[in-house]
Amino acid sequence: MRNYLSIDIGGTNLKYGLIDHSGNLLFKDQIATPTEKRVFIGELKKIIATYKQEIYGVAISVPGKVDSKRGIVYYGGSLPFLNKLNFKELIQTEFGELVVAIENDGKAGALAELWLGTLKNKKNSAAIILGTGVGGGIIINNQLLQGSHFQSGELSFMVNNYQLKGYDKMVGMSCSSVKMIEQIATALNLPDKKDGLAVFEQLNLKNKLAWDIFRRYCRRVAYLILNVQSVVDLSIYAIGGGISAQSLLVETINQQYDEILLELPLIKKTLTRPEIRMARFENNANLYGALYSLLQQEDYIND
């Protein structure tokens, strides 16, 4: 059975693992993501060289707008030095016989769920990945929607509050789970403003101050789902990101979605309500999704 090296390039950590063709994670490790292009490329080559004899191909998940056909990333999100880097060309020049695929991190999260997770066998669906910003991927007729410019699913760039100025009016800010955790931690005067577990401990105790912030956050996510639903009419949404491990999140998003429908009966009568469920994959989602993108490209090439 073929093994592949899957790499998830994040703003903080670069994770990598060996996964076989059936989706079994055989090994996983990570390093701090280098912040300078030359060092980054050196570390990437070192990782691939270590496993070169064990793998058939390399799959990569990366922030930014990704031309998955040519293997080029644009802008690079939190890693702007990756702008215009052609990963496919870089890797195949150094390790010629390897097959290579690159995918946007949000879309990779959706592909993981489509392959082996909550969206499996769901013809029209989406994953919404809640983190520092809001990523995502939309599945139409069992295929990932790329768009004309490889930028479908960039939910962070949607505007949901026209009265605010600058980036605060965008979904990436108003639905940032990191920002929500910091807001609650600050309101409760917690020592660590990034301690999500401490925040959810207070939420499960129904701390009113924490709950009011959290409820408003979940309502904004529910509005986001409703807006997407009105355009693409999906059957199910998988909520991902590290915060999704807390069952209270999806439970409250569902409650808020239902409250919105009660307030807007015309929408309730007109738009069929989709399922909103917890994504199966958490921190490993992009490793699986990047590989599934590669496997799909292989199938296309071999057909």
Automatic annotation (TrEMBL):
InterPro entries: ATPase_NBD, ROK
SUPFAM superfamilies the UniProt entry points to: Actin-like ATPase domain
Pfam families the UniProt entry points to: ROK
Family, per entry: Belongs to the ROK (NagC/XylR) family.
Protein name, per record: Transcriptional regulator
